[in-house]
Amino acid sequence: MSSQTTRLDLIRHGEPVGGRRFRGDAVDDPLSELGWQQLERRVELLADRGLADWDVIATSPMRRCRAFAASVAERRGLELVVDPDLREIGFGPWEGLRHAEIPERYPEQHAAFLADPVDGRPPGSEPMTDFVERVTRGLERLETNHAGQSVLVLSHAIVMRAACVWVLNAPLAAIAHVETEYAAMLSIRHNHRGRRLLGLDNGLPGDEA
Q1: Would you name the residues annotated as active-site residues?
Q2: What is the residue-level pLDDT of the chain in tens, covering all 209 positions?
Q3: Domain spans of the chain?
Q4: Which fold, 6-201?
Q5: What's the EC number here (predicted)?
Q6: Which strands make up the sheet holding 56-59, listed edge to edge?
Q7: DSSP 196
């Protein structure tokens, strides 16, 4: 890769223990066996394509990201950067609840959230503007500290959506229109032409459609 280009490869964590539920920065479940396998498949797929030539491994401090990131860093003998700014958004009273429980327990909050995912977040949750600002700060710090390098970033669903908004200079409301499945990958390049979003890949071999 040219020394003029910095690459950030963001990969969402795999399935955590406990399955799908609202996990922000207050619920720190580890990866399930399946979740670990999903991430291994993602890395293997990238290696087959010659796209796993990372110089640095960065991660959210949450266990569902950090454990796998540490494993990759140790296996490859690479620096591990743990950045709290890359943690998932806080969901306040919804933390730990399954998606089906929200409309039952908090019908008014749920309706407000569906109508406006940016400003209709539940009371006590992290404001979307604050969240996007800190994620942007973390990603820009990686670009600055590792200019000209390739960085693997173990991340979260909404962190990756915030990265899309950042690169595309899109309105915050666009964050609700990006799908990020377990072990999804988002690749960003930054060079003399500015930042470019190379694409979002949600698929993994062997996954059900």
Answers
A1: 13, 88
A2: 445 899 999 999 999 999 889 999 999 999 999 999 999 999 999 999 999 999 999 999 999 999 999 999 999 999 999 999 999 999 999 999 999 999 999 999 999 999 999 999 999 999 999 999 999 999 999 999 999 999 999 999 999 999 999 999 999 999 999 999 999 999 999 999 999 999 899 877 554 32
A3: 6-201
A4: Rossmann fold (3.40.50)
A5: 3.1.3.-
A6: 79-82, 56-59, 150-155, 6-12, 185-191, 194-201
A7: E
